[in-house]
Amino acid sequence: MTAIELRIRSIYDSLSNAERKVADYFLSNMENVFNMPIAALAQDAGVSQVAWIRFCKAIGFSGLKELKKELFAQTQKRADENAAAPFSDVREIISMRALIDGIKQNSIQAIQDTAQLLDPSTLETAAQAILKAKTVRIFGMGASGIVGEDLHSKLMRINKNSYFSTDPHTQLTYAANMVPQDVAVLISMSGKTKEVLEILALAKQCKTPTIALTKYSKTPLAVNADTVLYISAPEISMRSGAMSSRLAQLMVIDALFTAVAHMDYETIAVNLEKSLESTSSHRIDSEGTFRFG
């Protein structure tokens, strides 16, 4: 239980009837608080927006925005603590079963937390930017580069022009030649990767719209990108590497690609069918001979 939940329960009896309705709704539907505007929350709870504001102030916050921020911080801390219990460091594995359970828990927690952070309107904005872009230029280093390559391959399947390379120098070349009609997708869990920030600066010079995939924090990437899709992952130790964060990033990539496909389904469905036909037409016969068609 978070400190906010404890605070609500401790002052529940002193709340007004309307504020109690808000409290009851909040305690039963905390996931909605991350994703819904105050008007929708008020309608769902059967109270006015003013009641929500008074409720926030009653538990020590200036408004819903501040409450959401603190609620996220507390739920993230709780997720980290829970994830650390079965698996916190590769040195601390006591059995193969503990290893399997720990990796599973970290992965599930990363995807669940990231789904809570993923704002639908922001996802839609990012998808629209990709859909209308002349080319999509994708940037990421190390494990984030693997995620970038996944997005690149998905976009190729729908015949969307995209650029990606695992080589940092090639990425910088792609960045230097961007134009305002392109879009840059910058992937960095830390939000502080030097090469990615250099590319962000180039994008600003080129007046190219930017989409960032990064953790929920006021990092240079998150603060300066035009559109930010936040990632949450309970990484415990540098020794365990970017495991759950990679899965969380891939989940966001899947959501982004699906949103793009949904917005232009008629065209994209044809391209996907062509891609499927082209790959399925390559055959190896029983004698090991390659045949086409």
Low-confidence stretches: 83-88
The CATH class of the largest domain, by name, is Alpha Beta
Task: State the end-to-end distance.
Answer: 60 Å
Strand order of the largest sheet: 2-1-3-4-5
The CATH architecture term of the largest domain is 3-Layer(aba) Sandwich
- Which whole number gives the mean pLDDT? 84
Structural class per helix/strand content?
alpha/beta
Strand fraction band? Answer: 5-15%
Count of helices? 14
Global outline: globular
Count of separate structural domains = 2
- In helices, the fraction of residues equals 55-70%
Q: What is the fold-level CATH name, i.e. the topology of the largest domain?
A: Rossmann fold
CATH superfamily of the largest domain: Glucose-6-phosphate isomerase like protein, domain 1
The total strand number stands at 7
- Overall radius of gyration: 23 Å
Order of helices and strands: HHHHHHHHEHEHEHEHEHHEE
Main sheet attributes: strand count, strand direction, barrel closure: 5 strands, parallel
Q: What is the secondary structure topology, with strand pairs?
A:
Elements: H1 3-11, H2 17-28, H3 30-35, H4 38-45, H5 49-58, H6 64-84, H7 96-117, H8 120-132, E1 136-140, H9 143-157, E2 162-163, H10 168-176, E3 183-187, H11 194-206, E4 210-215, H12 220-224, E5 227-231, H13 244-263, H14 265-280, E6 282-284, E7 290-292
Parallel strand pairs: 1-2, 1-3, 3-4, 4-5
Antiparallel strand pairs: 6-7
